[in-house]
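Final report, closing paragraph on structural work. Over the funding period we assembled a curated collection of sequence-structure pairs, and we close with a single example.
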Amino acid sequence: MCECGTRRQMLGLGLGAAGLALLPSRARAAGGVTALAVTCIDYRLVDDAVRFFDDKKMTNDYDQVSLAGASLAAVSDKFPESNAAFWSHVGIAKQLHNIKKVIVVDHRDCGAFKVAFGKDYKGEGAVETAQHKAVMQQVKAKLAKTHPDLQSEFYLMALDGSTERVI
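Its predicted structure, as stored:
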């Protein structure tokens, strides 16, 4: 190997070590994190979701996966690939980071809910909350059956970032 290849490898190792040193010790710890956070992919609420978890004092204490519809991704027959991804990520987060709970954050005016429910989509207010809650209850039941050791929390976020616990 040429000397320049060795230098590049050494530089890469040095930069990797420096990057690792900058990570919080909790992120590097083998013990893991408290939760898997499941949020929707909607770009309108990415920053609000981060603020939500920061406000819950969970900064650097959760794994995160974003799937269209959040709770809907776990159980809707309209999105079988998302179903598989949701449940795979729960298992992976348990295995790699020893999570203790799953926190699901749906949001109002969700396009995935519109796709999944079509003409039966409930667009706002209490009926929209009830539709999300019904899906969340399905996820909670399946989670309790497949991962009885995990706790769960389910929230509904408004487009202004305010959040209410549903289950």
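Residues 32-165 form a domain with the Beta-carbonic Anhydrase; Chain A fold (CATH 3.40.1050.10). The first strand starts at residue 35 and ends at 39. We thank the funder for supporting this effort.
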